[in-house]
Amino acid sequence: MKTYMARSEDIQKKWHVVNAEGKIVGRLATKVATILRGKDKPQFTPHADCGDFVIVVNAEKVNFSGKKWIQKTYYRHTGYPGGLRSITADKLLEKKPEEIIKKAVWGMLPKNKWQKKLIQRLKVYTGDEHPHEAQSPEVLEV
Q1: Is the residue at 45 inside a domain?
Q2: Mind listing the pLDDT tens digit for each residue in 70-106?
């Protein structure tokens, strides 16, 4: 008996829409990362690209548990000496609410060559409208 190995060109990619309104960021990100990677499919193969596209709407209406809105800090570095910059979650929500979900999903993807490729299939929007109606996405409950 032979073992089935899925190939990237044999997998049909679907589009999913997730409404982030009232959802906890971490729990939403784990589900989205699973779908992006393709681990929810029975033919999942770690070395093949099996994942689907995910559209997240209402990114500005997500929630954190506890006091994370004021305690959680996002860091980045400019590349210059002394260039460490930080921003709290509530300030990031005011500036770029879609970045909260992107950063949460980015941290849950594998740290290899697939990470950049998978994050490109994640589309995050503020508000409940998106420009991907032509792909006829399926509504996904998280």
Answers
A1: yes
A2: 999 999 999 999 999 999 999 999 999 999 999 999 9
Q: Pairing between strand 73-77 and 84-88?
A: antiparallel
Q: Is residue 123 included in any domain, yes or no?
A: yes
Answer whether 0.85 is exceeded by the pTM: yes
Q: Answer whether residue 91 is part of any domain.
A: no
Domain range for 22 is: 14-64+97-129
Window from 4-8, 69-73, 130-134 with minimum mean pLDDT: 4-8
End-to-end CA gap in the chain: 37
Count of the separate structural domains present in the chain: 1
